[in-house]
């Protein structure tokens, strides 16, 4: 069956509530440097002479002209232009790699494979054979022992015997890197890093991603957003000059007809009890405005424990809801959002 309308059905259980890193883990990133194994990500490998052209026709960004020194954000949409997945893509030798939310990796690989048809391309879930590690803070000296050169700009990719090192956007004014390499080799080298950097839990990376303003599509928000609703145009995750891909007409129409009335914002939710917050502050939880309690005005995209207590979130919301009143999680009398500036300007602010 090659039905473009077939849903992506996550093979994992429901999206997990945000984890609760200790205050010392956040402080390690902010005061010196830390690394964190990232088990919330999976990797899809695409190989074959036509792997690039195939993915170019499936994803929102340009894969055909992706060079070995670059990485790019991209989305995978349904025919209705709604995001099925978000990903970071790069070339590793003769392989194109896609870094995807772990719970969506297998179903996205399966769905993409349905449409390969006669193309000389093959996709495989490589999550069991590679490891993903995040670095944040003052980490250049330890990384220089793993790689001969370090990326000198955001989304620059450096390859070496240890795998791939990609600079990703700063968060909380701290530089960040992703290391993706063979699992056995990475696990062996990580033991040596413990003497130089603090090992922290992966929930710290989730918090950093939120403060970088980079959304991650997970199970709770599959098919909820046209890419511009989560700022993919601002993040250069959409190429409007490339050819067609599933949902392209909807995405282009939203861009050029000025119909983008919803955007993703950064906000915090004051802490109550951790147990109560875990039940309400999750991807996919609806938001309600004080002036219109009967209709949702937005949705939580991502959530992470804040070092200040409570949670920080990326929230997709009607722009009109930001003009006055208050916005609440789950219901009009739920926890209130306190909005913060994103680390980049939205088009209406330029």
Biggest β-sheet strands, sense, barrel: 6 strands, mixed
Uncertain regions: pLDDT < 50 for 5+ in a row?
11-15
The CATH topology assignment of the largest domain is Gyrase A, domain 2
User: In angstroms, what is the radius of gyration?
Assistant: 20 Å
The helix content is 10-25%
Mean pLDDT: 92
Tell me the series of helices and strands, N- to C-terminal: HEEHEEEHEEHEEEHEHHEHEEEEE
Basic shape: globular
Number of helices: 8
Give the structural class. alpha+beta
Write out the CATH superfamily name of the largest domain: Probable tRNA modification gtpase trme, domain 1
Please provide the count of β strands: 17
Task: Report strand order across the widest sheet.
Answer: 8-9-10-7-1-11
The CATH architecture designation of the largest domain is 2-Layer Sandwich
CATH class of the largest domain: Alpha Beta
Distance between the termini: 45 Å
Strand content: 25-35%
Tally the structural domains.
Answer: 2
Report on the architecture of this protein.
With 350 residues, the protein is of the alpha+beta class. It folds into two domains: 33-211, Probable tRNA modification gtpase trme, domain 1 (Gyrase A, domain 2, 2-Layer Sandwich); 261-342, Beta Barrel (Elongation Factor Tu (Ef-tu), domain 3), CATH 2.40.30.110. The chain is 20% helix and 32% strand. It contains eight helices and 17 strands. It has helices at 23-31, 51-56, 102-114, 140-144, 183-193, 203-211, 248-256, 274-280, and strands at residues 33-37, 41-47, 71-77, 83-92, 95-101, 122-125, 130-137, 157-160, 163-171, 174-182, 198-199, 262-269, 286-289, 292-305, 311-318, 327-329, 337-340. The strands form three sheets. The chain has a six-stranded mixed sheet. A six-stranded antiparallel sheet has the order 16-13-14-15-12-17. A five-stranded antiparallel sheet has the order 3-4-5-2-6. Strand 3 (71-77) and strand 4 (83-92) form a beta hairpin. The chain is globular and about 55 Å long. Mean pLDDT is 92; it is low at 11-15.
């Amino acid at each position: 069956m090659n039905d473009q309308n077939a849903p992506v059905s996550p093979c994992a259980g429901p999206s997990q509530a945000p984890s609760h890193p200790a205050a010392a883990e956040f402080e390690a990133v902010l005061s010196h440097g830390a690394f964190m194994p990232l088990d919330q990500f999976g990797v899809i490998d695409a190989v074959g002479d036509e792997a690039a052209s195939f993915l170019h026709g499936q994803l929102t960004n340009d894969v055909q002209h992706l060079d070995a020194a670059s990485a790019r954000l991209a989305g995978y949409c349904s025919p209705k232009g709604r995001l099925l997945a978000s990903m970071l893509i790069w070339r590793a030798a003769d392989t194109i790699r896609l870094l995807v939310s772990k719970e969506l990796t297998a179903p996205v690989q399966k769905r993409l494979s349905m449409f390969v048809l006669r193309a000389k391309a093959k996709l495989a879930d490589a999550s069991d054979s590679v490891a993903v590690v995040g670095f944040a803070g003052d980490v250049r000296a330890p990384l220089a022992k793993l790689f001969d050169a370090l990326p000198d700009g955001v989304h620059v990719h450096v390859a070496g015997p240890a795998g791939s090192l990609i600079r990703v956007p700063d968060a909380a004014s701290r530089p960040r890197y992703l290391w993706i390499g063979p699992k056995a080799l990475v696990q062996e080298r990580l033991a040596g890093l413990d003497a130089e950097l603090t090992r922290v839990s992966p929930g710290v990376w989730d918090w950093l991603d939120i403060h970088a303003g980079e959304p991650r599509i997970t199970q709770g928000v599959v098919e909820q957003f046209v890419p511009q609703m989560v700022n993919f145009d601002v993040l250069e995750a959409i190429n409007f000059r490339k050819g067609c891909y599933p949902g392209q007409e909807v995405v282009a129409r939203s861009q050029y007809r000025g119909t983008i009335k919803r955007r993703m914002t950064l906000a915090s939710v004051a802490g109550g009890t951790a147990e109560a917050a875990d039940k309400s502050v999750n991807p996919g939880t609806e938001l309600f405005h004080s002036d219109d309690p009967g209709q949702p005005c937005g949705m939580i995209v991502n959530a992470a424990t804040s070092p200040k207590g409570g949670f920080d979130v990326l929230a997709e919301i009607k722009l009109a809801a930001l003009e006055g009143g208050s916005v609440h999680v789950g219901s009009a009398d739920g926890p209130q959002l306190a909005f913060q500036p994103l680390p980049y300007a939205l088009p209406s602010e330029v």
